[in-house]
Amino acid sequence: MTVSGAAGNFSARVSSWRSSLAVSEESLQETVARFSFLFLLIAALGTLVVVLLMVAREAYPVLFSRSGLWGLLITESWEPLSEPAQLGVRHAWISTLAVTTIALSLAVPLGFGIGIFIAEIAPAAIKEALQPCLELLAGIPSVVYGFFGYVTLVPWFETSFEMATGESLLAAGLILAVMIVPFVASTSAEALGAVPGDVKEAALALGVNRCWMTTRVLVRHAAPGMFAAVALGLGRALGETLAVLMLAGNSVALPASPLDRGQPITALIITELGEAGVGSPKQEALFAAALVLMVVIVAVNTLIGRLKRRMLHGRV
Amino acid sequence: MAAFDLSLRAERAHLWQDRVFIAVAWSLGLLGFVLPVSIVVFLFYRGAGAISLDLLWQSPRGFPLGASGGIRPAIEGSLALVILGLAVSLPLAVGGAVYLTEYSASDRLRRAASFCAECLAGVPAIIYGLFGYSFLVVFLQMRISLLAGGITLGLVMLPIILIGAYEALRAVEEKYRETGLALGVSRIYVFRRNIWPKARAGVLAAVVLAAGHAFGSAAPVLLTASVVMSKGGLDLSSPVMTLPTHLYYLVSEASSLEQAYATALILVLLLLAANFSVMRSKSRRQR
User: What angle do CA A73, A76, A79 make, to 5 degrees?
Assistant: First the structure.
């Protein structure tokens, strides 16, 4: 072995030692980065879970109160000033249900129609113009919709139905429908667009027209996605606050018809929370109502997740 | 002959069915145009006359309050709330998304986290408002304040940004990660030099979307941060005015419809400008 060979060997060893050092330095930096990103993820999701737990914590004493959950939801009305205070929210959830039903029964056919139009009928240029329009519709804030309904629908109701005040569940439901149409439309368009082309071609090759092909073949293939679109709209409608607050009339009486005034859960919370003492039964009732609403919405979202996954698996 | 007649008739029915179907689809599509455009045009028609420099630069005046004067404190308050909210949510959301796409090896964690985030994005803003009220305002004694409202809006934005950033990062093709890692550089290096430049525009779009949503949302602000009137000047521990809540107060207290139209129009125009900039950057990326 020559001297130069030994030296070369040595320097190779040094460099390999160095590079292994570099690797371990790198991996230190890497470890720091990994754990800080992991920390951020845990903090993000953890914070949000804490939010939900805090709301639940404020709400749970209702379970052990005089009237309990049954009283909250079914038997009692909302009379916080009477003796003893009646703290039931049945008028609120019935209003929420009514407003949501009106909104969905309008927005679902409309949204599906627009979805079919985008996915099947519209030429590319129109499609490209329509999608930003729907995004615009989805981007207008709730309070602006509420204001819009207040200056258009409410006076119109007053004159055409000769109502004392045009604020009603129907007005709130109509505006809510406009608000959720873009969500139903774009989600259903996405679902229809995801149906593989050969299914379509096979149907058309059998000589059916586009109407038949769309309603009997496409829609069935896209059914989970279309259902997810409805669920998305439902979730939005249930949690909508400002528009229904401004349009539903904020009355604690039990609504009997769509033309009556009502007070959806969200509107009840905004209206009453400021006047509820901290830790009072009234505040607990409001938080419990919110918790019920949230549980329903999370259930609906879980459903969406399931359906989406099935839509994806159906495609593969 | 009769059979021929029948088939001809069937064919005609067939054709008509198709025509009706297409006509209905076109008219619904047209409605998709007309609805948003008519709402914006209506607001513009009724509100544009009331917009002036005074409106943008002065404080509300008159009786009932807000009947005249400007809405400057409301614009400032809205911006301050959203910026504060972004300061809270941006690091958490983007950092969390980076962990999911760049570091996590578990597909299960990824699915669970994104499912969680989607659920949380579906939780209505008023629930976050309730948390802000009971925890920040009452328990931590922040009172109704800019700070409490900013943190609450941050929570509203958090899941939206997390999902958007996650999707944007995931949209960067896997090969950029693999080639980088195959060359022996660290994941953080791959992320900084390969992934982030490609995903940046998408993440930004998600942030603007979430910020726009927070900018227009009134329910959590009503519970944690807003007052009918403030003299302007921002202080973390004092309440603020915001555009959406100002609009709400103007309507519910029947102060001034003219001012309400102007406020609504400015709110919509600001959000439109933000959305438009996102759309432009998106379409530029696609080209």
Answer: 120
Give one DSSP letter per residue of A241-279, joined into a string: -HHHHHHSB---SPP-STTS-B--HHHHHHHHHTTSPTT
Is residue B176 within 8 Å of B256, Cβ to Cβ? no
The model's pTM: 0.88
Are A29 and A95 part of one and the same domain?
Answer: no
Same domain, B37 and B174: no
Question: Is residue B232 pLDDT above 70, yes or no?
Answer: no
* B132 and B16, same domain (yes or no): no
| Cα distance between residue A245 and residue A266, in whole Å | 7
The answer to whether B138 and B152 have CB atoms below 8 angstroms apart is no
Token pair 């982030």 is found at B196
Determine the distance from the C-alpha atom of residue A22 to the mean position of all C-alpha atoms in its chain, rounded to a whole number: 49
Domain match, B190 and B239 both: yes
Amino acid in position B231 = K
- Complex ipTM over 0.95: no
Residues A122-147: tens digit of each pLDDT = 899 999 889 888 988 888 999 999 99
The answer to whether residue A305 scores a pLDDT higher than 80 is no
Mutate which of B16, B43, B92 to disrupt the A interface (most A C-beta within 10 Å)?
A: B92
Chain B, residues 93-152, CB within 8 A of chain A, namely: 93-100, 102-103, 113, 115-120, 122-128, 130-131, 133-135, 138
